[in-house]
Specification:
Subunit structure: Homotetramer.
Structural class: alpha+beta
GO cellular component, one term: cytosol
Largest sheet: 8 strands, mixed
Order of helices and strands: HHEEHEEEEEEEEEHEHEHEEH
Strand order of the largest sheet: 4-3-5-6-7-8-9-10
Distance between the termini: 63 Å
Shape: globular
Organism: Coprinopsis cinerea (strain Okayama-7 / 130 / ATCC MYA-4618 / FGSC 9003)
Subcellular location: Cytoplasm
Bound molecules: 2,5-anhydro-1,6-di-O-phosphono-D-mannitol, magnesium ion
Strand content: 15-25%
Keywords: Carbohydrate metabolism, Cytoplasm, Hydrolase, Magnesium, Metal-binding
C-alpha cells in the first residue's frame, strides 16, 4: 500500500551531463557529451556480452598474449574492439590508449576530434570465468592547444584529465563518473537501455573499517605496508580491527571503497618494483574519482594525479580511499624505514 509511484522524471546520464554542460555556458560545445554517449554505448554493449558470455562461448583464452605478457581472454579482446570502434566512430577522439594494445591509436581525419581516451576495456580478467564482477575503466584528456593529437597529449599528469570513470558489470551494471565536479553513479535500466542517476554526489566516508589488499603478497611487501596492515589488524586502545575485503577486480574493490570507505591498496613490493596497476588507465581514473569523492590517492609518498607518465603502459603503486585511512598509511611511509 505504501509503494511509491514510479518516477516520471528520470535523470539519465546524458541528461545529467547535458545539464552540466548547459551550466558551464558557452565554453561547452557538447563534444564531451557526445563522447560520453559513445562510452555509455560501449558499456551497454560490453555488459550484454558479459552477461551472455557463458552461453555464446566467450569465456576462456583467445590464444593471444598482450603487451604485459598476459594471456588475453576472449571478452577482453571483444571489449577492446567494441571500444576502439565506437570511440573512433564518435568523431570526438584523437588518441586512444588501451591496456590491450601495445601502441596508441591515432585517429585520422575525418574522424579526428579533440579528446584522448585512455582505457582498460575489461579489467579484472582473472574473475571473468567465475562470473565475478569485472569492469571498464576510462580517463579522458583534451588535446593540448595547438596539438594535432600526439603521444604527448596522453603523457600528462592525471590531474589534467577532464573526466574519468568506470563501469562495473556486476549484479547490476553501474557507471560511475566525474567530469571534475563531484562523482555520480548511474545504474543501467536494462529495459530502457539507459543509465539512470541512482548515486548522486558520491562522497567517501572520511574513515572506513575495511582494508582491501592482496595479502597473498605479504612476503614481498616492504616494511611500511607491513607495519600499516599490522596496525589495522592489531589496533591499540581497544579499537576494533578492520575487516578484509578483496575481490581482485579493481573496479569492484574501488566501487566498494567509494561507497563504504576504507582503503584499497596495490603496493610496490620486492617482486613488483612498481606495483601492478597501470598508471594511465587504472591508477589515474580511480585516483581522479577518489579525489573528486573527497578521498586521497597516493603511491605512499606522492599524489598519484601529480605523476607525469613517461610511457603509456607504466605502472605505479596505488593506495586510495578514505582520507583518514590513507593519511595514516602515508604516515607509515614517512616514518617506517
Ligand atoms: P588485469 O588488468 O590483468 O585484469 O589486472 C588488473 C587487476 C585489477 O583489477 C586488480 O586490482 C588487480 O589486478 C588484482 O591483482 P592480483 O590478482 O595480483 O591481486
Ligand atoms: Mg587491467
Amino acid at each position: 500500500a505504501n509503494e511509491e509511484p514510479p518516477s516520471t522524471d528520470l535523470i539519465t546520464l546524458t541528461r545529467h551531463v547535458l545539464s552540466d554542460q548547459i551550466r558551464l555556458g558557452s565554453s561547452a560545445t557538447g563534444d564531451l557529451t557526445l563522447l560520453l554517449n559513445a562510452i555509455q554505448l560501449t558499456s551497454k554493449f560490453i555488459a550484454t556480452n558479459v552477461r551472455k558470455a557463458r552461453l555464446i562461448n566467450l569465456v576462456g583464452l583467445a590464444g593471444e598474449t598482450n603487451v604485459q605478457g598476459e594471456e588475453q581472454k576472449k571478452l577482453d579482446v571483444l571489449s577492446n574492439d567494441i571500444m576502439v570502434n565506437a570511440l573512433r566512430a564518435s568523431g570526438k577522439t584523437a588518441v586512444l590508449v588501451s591496456e590491450e594494445l601495445d601502441e596508441a591509436i591515432f585517429i585520422d581525419d575525418p574522424y579526428k576530434g579533440k579528446y584522448c581516451v585512455v582505457f582498460d576495456p575489461l579489467d579484472g580478467s582473472s574473475n571473468i570465468d567465475a562470473g565475478v564482477n569485472i569492469g571498464t575503466i576510462f580517463g579522458i584528456y583534451k588535446v593540448q592547444p595547438e596539438s594535432t593529437g600526439t603521444i604527448e597529449d596522453v603523457l600528462r599528469p592525471g590531474r589534467e584529465m577532464v573526466a574519468a570513470g568506470y563501469t562495473m558489470y556486476g549484479s547490476s551494471c553501474n557507471l560511475v563518473m566525474s567530469t571534475g565536479n563531484g562523482v555520480n553513479g548511474y545504474t543501467l535500466d536494462a529495459a530502457l537501455g539507459e543509465f539512470i542517476l541512482t548515486h548522486p554526489n558520491i562522497t567517501i566516508p572520511p574513515r572506513g573499517k575495511i582494508y582491501s589488499f592482496n595479502e597473498g603478497n605479504s612476503m614481498y611487501f616492504y616494511p611500511p605496508t607491513t607495519a600499516y596492515l599490522k596496525s589495522i589488524k592489531y589496533p591499540a586502545n581497544n579499537k576494533s580491527p578492520y575487516s578484509a575485503r578483496y575481490i581482485g577486480s579493481m573496479v569492484a574493490d574501488v566501487h566498494r571503497t567509494l561507497l563504504y570507505g576504507g582503503i584499497f591498496g596495490y603496493p610496490s613490493d620486492k617482486k613488483s618494483k612498481s606495483g601492478k596497476l597501470r598508471l594511465l588507465y587504472e591508477a589515474f581514473p580511480m585516483a581522479y574519482l577518489t579525489e573528486q569523492a573527497g578521498g586521497i590517492a597516493t603511491t605512499g609518498t606522492q599524489r598519484i594525479l601529480d605523476i607525469t607518465p613517461k610511457t603509456i603502459h607504466e605502472r605505479c603503486p596505488v593506495f586510495l580511499g578514505s582520507r583518514d585511512d590513507v593519511q595514516e598509511l602515508m604516515r607509515f611511509y614517512k616514518e617506517v624505514p
